[in-house]
């Protein structure tokens, strides 16, 4: 089941093409753009400040997106891939970024376009990741420029997720938390 809830009278604003997998929870002042996808058991909680997600952005399984009243909103651009179990809190992620699985992005950090945050990294509060760079570690540090292969992955990943959504819908899952239950013998 998908949960889309208001908070203090503010309902999430989801483009009609947004895909919501079972277990997704979207609360409050949240806007999600066309062809974006929110995968299984993800929480996007826009209760104390707004959360904005662009187009063709995938927020993968078990990710948590939240905000704080002290530092402001969470802004995520278009063509962003947010890996499984990532936590993004009151930060800015520009277009064409790959956030690795289990990465944590703290308040007021900024991730510039065509950057990669390695899996398991912790991007500290207020840190700015320059465009075209790979950051890794705890705390995350600039490691090197991204490779041509990494840049291709950043470009291809959003299209892959648009295709995965299409496959789910063709298989009987409507992307609104309703699918056919199949019993195994």
UniProtKB/TrEMBL annotation:
Residues spanning the signal sequence: none
Matching Gene3D superfamilies: Hexapeptide repeat proteins (2.160.10.10)
Protein name in the entry: Gamma carbonic anhydrase family protein
Organism: Prosthecochloris marina
Lineage: Bacteria, Pseudomonadati, Chlorobiota, Chlorobiia, Chlorobiales
